[in-house]
Design a protein that fits this description.
CATH topology of the largest domain: D-Maltodextrin-Binding Protein, domain 2
Distance between the termini: 75 Å
CATH architecture of the largest domain: 3-Layer(aba) Sandwich
Largest sheet: 6 strands, mixed
Shape: globular
Number of strands: 11
Order of helices and strands: HEHEHEHEEHEHEHEHEEHHEH
């Protein structure tokens, strides 16, 4: 065999080897990209049945089934307790589980900062996607003498400590907002903590407290029924249902608090191709008419983010919460 013939054969062999390697790589990548769930998906939430996260999780499950976006069932697993700590621990225990997700709110970020009992932080889990931002509104009873935020603040200034606000825990958004507003305005009013949203609403409607901060979807029924009056919105933009109500900044109180997010997390150790599948799935859900209607009907704000951006957002919220808690004199656990 001549030298040039031998060289051509060797050259051809190298080409075949390279092509085979590329083909094998493509096959491997395709196998990863084609991951799909094969059994029921558990979605862990930190509220009991009927709580905000429970309702949203069940709504998402129904939408995915209606839109035929998910080839398997999705079921909600309630793990209440510890302001998200119990649910976070349950999700962390599912390390590497590709068929379990967690639906979180900002309370999953807040609790580990102030509670030594919360052993798991969001840094121990895998970010998937942020779904929405949840605005809030300041409300009073419809027959309250306070027509505007200015009316309430000035009444609190005239009667230090006498007005009352119903709310959740001392580390909840409504409590943080109270602390920030009091510091900005030099006023003071009491905070009455209740375990459930129904109790907080009952306290306001029963005249036992003067004001509360509430999510629009919780307040909507009472506002439409003429039982509550909205004084201001905690939102970046006017909510469609309250076009004539000022944002807090427009009302003259440029006070910011970390946003209330609703997002999806996975257990630690879940492969990237699985996270990519869920990112794509929730991206498709976001584009449906059902989801858009849900956002509008519940006065939520679009806040979709991929996992990488969600991780950055969590870091920012955590930093803001640390500052707010320190200013409020809340002892940090970590």
């Amino acid at each position: 065999m001549k030298n040039h013939e031998r060289n051509e054969i060797m050259h051809f062999s190298r080409i075949i080897s390279i092509a085979a390697a590329v083909f094998a790589t493509c096959l491997g990548g395709s196998a990863h990209a084609d991951w799909k769930p094969t059994k029921t998906i558990d979605v862990i939430v930190h509220t009991g049945p009927g709580g905000g996260n429970d309702v949203l999780a069940r709504t998402i499950a129904n939408m995915l089934e209606k839109e035929k976006l998910l080839p398997v069932r999705m079921q909600v697993v309630n793990k209440p307790g510890g302001n998200g700590a119990v649910a976070a621990a349950a999700l962390a225990e599912k390390k590497g589980d590709t068929h379990t997700l967690g639906l979180i709110t900002s309370v999953w970020i807040a609790s580990p900062l102030i509670s030594s009992e919360a052993k798991v932080t969001l840094h121990d889990l895998t970010p998937v996607t942020r779904l929405v931002l949840e605005p809030a509104v300041f409300v009073v009873r419809a027959d309250s003498p306070y027509k505007t935020m200015h009316d309430f603040i000035e009444a609190a200034r005239a009667k230090p400590g006498q007005l009352k606000q119903s709310g959740g825990s001392l580390t909840s958004r409504d409590s943080i907002m109270r602390q920030a507003l009091q510091q900005r305005t030099g006023t003071k009013w009491a905070f009455v903590s209740f375990q459930g949203g129904g109790e907080r609403i009952a306290a306001l409607l029963g005249g036992h407290v003067d004001m509360m901060i509430i999510e629009p979807q919780e307040a909507g029924e009472h506002i439409r029924a003429g039982k509550m009056r909205v004084l201001a919105q905690i939102a970046d933009h006017h909510l469609p249902a309250y076009p004539g109500v000022p944002t807090l900044k427009e009302a003259g109180y440029d006070v910011t608090v970390p946003p209330q997010i609703r997002a999806v997390m996975a257990p630690p150790g879940v492969p990237k191709e699985v996270i990519a599948y869920w990112e794509d799935l929730f991206g498709k859900l976001r584009a449906t008419a059902s989801w858009k209607k849900y956002i509008l009907d519940n006065q939520l704000e679009e806040g979709f983010m991929n996992g990488m951006d969600l991780a950055k957002s969590i870091d920012e919220i955590e930093k803001e919460l640390r500052v707010q808690y320190q200013q409020a004199g809340v002892k940090l656990a970590r």
